[in-house]
Design a protein that fits this description.
This protein has 101 residues and is mostly helical. The protein contains 4 helices and 2 strands, in the order H-H-H-H-E-E. The protein starts with 5 loop residues before the first helix and ends with a strand.
């Protein structure tokens, strides 16, 4: 069996390096996507969970202010129509004589 030349071995190493680099990039993209999904799920959870109404109000207000400038494509904005519509500012009566906002 003939030994591989140094040039052949270097070519194989470079091919292996390129393959590993591609796998690393793919893993980093996967991790980035997972982080975005998880942070989105976290935000949506806090918007739908009314355990801290003041925080939910501040969070939804922040999203209504910030998302329109962050989202540039109409189809992306359409995905968040429910979050971007103006807050209901009507005053409700709770039948005890106190106004709620």
């Amino acid at each position: 069996m003939a030994r591989k030349s140094i040039e052949q071995r270097l070519a194989e190493i470079e091919t292996r390096r390129a393959d590993l680099k591609a796998r690393l990039i793919k893993q980093e993209r996967s991790n980035d996507t997972r982080r975005k999904v998880l942070i989105g799920a976290f935000v949506l959870h806090h918007l739908s969970n009314d355990k801290d109404p003041e925080f939910t109000k501040r969070l939804s207000g922040w999203l209504r202010r910030e998302l329109p400038t962050f989202l540039t494509r109409d189809n992306d904005k359409a995905l968040f129509d429910d979050l971007l519509k103006p807050e209901d500012t009507t005053v409700k009566n709770n039948h005890v004589g106190h106004d709620l906002i």
